[in-house]
Design goal:
475 residues; mainly alpha; Ammonium transporter fold; 3-stranded mixed sheet; 17 helices; ammonia transport; glycoprotein; transmembrane
């Protein structure tokens, strides 16, 4: 343990200082203010309420709460790894957002040799950060902070390239990120944990347990995520009725999955009692299952149905699929991200395809060609001119049929999952390198390896912690 402390004393600061130096050079060279933040483009006659800050900041603030508080608390459910779950989430999130601003800025906001920085960039970077934190759940407690930072360093550009290519060339509907965020993050994390497989943890670990206080803190994280999830799902929707539907559908889906979670938790329990792990995770399933169709006219009943389906699939996944994957396929999914993000993401994708196939002008009116812009007539089509008389700002589309678009949605799902699996496995192989200070099996799920812990660590009194601090002080 002392050798591990010495290696981190050099390697973690070296990695962070080198990264910050690189980021500083890149920010200095390529990042400048966007139009709404540039003083040269503003004056006393400028309407401040027309600034994009007032449109984007509420969503940015809500997603920020989800990233730093929601995920942080949720990942602190292990009795002896609460510091690691919350603090490494904090570290990884801050690093990933800094890095994502640069990487996504290059692909999405690159203009005249500069990245024009605004709140919209920060919001996009937070979504990329959410991808990393979901993947983090699969390797929780089994990795060093340096390994997590390396995962973020590699995953962000892989995700950014995939997102850019899918949105630019496949042009899909995925406002809530079920395909590009949840499915990608899930299968990237599963690929990484497959590469990081530990035979010594096949039958579990003595400290792979929750505690009374840690479970309460984790449920607090669930509540933060639950409350702010409508902002996450609606931030990228078209302003107006599309965004309004996204908020409504997300709330209904979350409510339905919550009731489903409580019902199934007691029904499937041997003693007919609630299980805290179910409340911490399954209650959120509805937010994912409505994601791909959240801005569409799926009806409140449809959102409710998706919430029930998501909660059921997530619950059964935790009870039966996670142990099966661990023992048969070497996938040690610590937080069960395949259940909350993978299974539900697949349901969401199928629901989105159904909603696309059933969309018509009778239901949507002329706004059909705004919600589904790729179905708008192409440039030069007489029908485009007719529609632009009703919707002046309507942009030319691709003239796709509903069936054609459904196939593109399937293709996007395949691309996202395929790239994620390959990228996750390769990233996991890099993370296995010895100089990244991976913890030994016996020190997994243990804060003492990385932190100065208090005397009441884990609620077990002084035990080893006071001795460890005395030893570390001599190093």
């Amino acid at each position: 343990m002392k050798a591990q402390a010495r290696s981190l004393r050099v390697r973690l600061p070296a990695f962070l200082f080198a990264s910050e130096a690189l980021f500083l050079v890149l920010y200095f060279s390529f990042v400048t203010y966007g139009d709404d933040a540039d003083a040269k483009l503003q004056n006393n006659r400028t309407d401040p309420m027309g600034n994009s800050l007032y449109r984007d900041y509420p969503f940015f603030a809500d997603v920020q709460v989800m990233i730093f508080i929601g995920f942080g608390c949720l990942l602190s459910f292990l009795r002896f790894y609460g510091f690691g779950g919350m603090v490494f989430n904090f570290l990884t999130a801050a690093f990933a957002i800094q890095w994502a601003i640069l990487v996504q800025g290059y692909f999405q906001f690159y203009l005249d040799g500069k990245i024009r920085l605004g709140v919209a960039n920060l919001l996009n970077a937070e979504f990329a950060c959410a991808v990393v934190l979901i993947s983090f759940g699969a390797v929780l407690g089994k990795t060093s902070p340096i390994q997590l930072l390396v995962m973020a360093l590699l995953e962000v550009p892989i995700f950014a390239i995939t997102e850019w290519a899918v949105l630019k060339y496949l042009q899909i509907n995925d406002v809530g990120g079920s395909i590009l965020i949840h499915l990608f993050a899930c299968y990237f994390g599963l690929g990484a944990t497959f590469a990081l497989y530990r035979p010594g943890l096949r039958e579990g670990h003595a400290k792979e347990i929750a505690g009374y206080r840690s479970d309460i803190l984790s449920v607090l994280g669930t509540l933060f995520l639950w409350v702010f999830w409508p902002s996450f799902n609606s931030a990228m929707a078209l302003k107006g009725d599309d965004q309004h539907r996204a908020v409504l559908h997300t709330f209904i889906g979350l409510s339905a999955s919550t009731l489903t979670a409580f019902a199934l938790s007691t029904m499937l329990s041997e003693r007919g009692r609630l299980t805290m792990a179910d409340i911490q995770n399954v209650t959120l399933a509805g937010g994912v299952t409505v994601g791909a169709s959240v801005d569409m006219m799926i009806s409140p009943a449809g959102a409710f149905t998706l919430g029930v389906m998501g909660g059921t699939a997530c619950m059964l996944g935790y009870k039966y699929l996670t142990p099966f994957l661990s023992h048969r396929f070497r996938i040690q999914d610590q937080c069960g991200i395949h259940n909350l993000h993978g299974l539900t993401g697949l349901i969401a994708t199928m629901a989105g395809i159904w909603a696309i196939l059933s969309a018509d002008e009778e239901t949507y009116g002329p706004s059909l060609y705004q919600t589904f812009n790729y179905r708008a007539p192409p440039e030069g089509d007489p029908k485009l001119l007719e529609l632009q008389q009703v919707i002046p700002d309507l942009q030319p589309g691709l003239g796709r049929s509903a069936r054609e678009q459904a196939l593109w949605q399937v293709a996007a799902m395949g691309v996202s999952v395929g790239v994620a699996v390959v990228g996750g496995v390769l990233t996991g192989l890099v993370m296995k390198l010895p100089f990244l200070a991976p913890p030994p099996d016996e020190c997994c799920y243990d804060d003492e390896l990385f932190f100065d812990v208090p005397s009441d660590y884990g609620g077990i009194g002084g035990s080893r912690s006071s001795v460890s601090r005395q030893e570390d002080s001599k190093v």
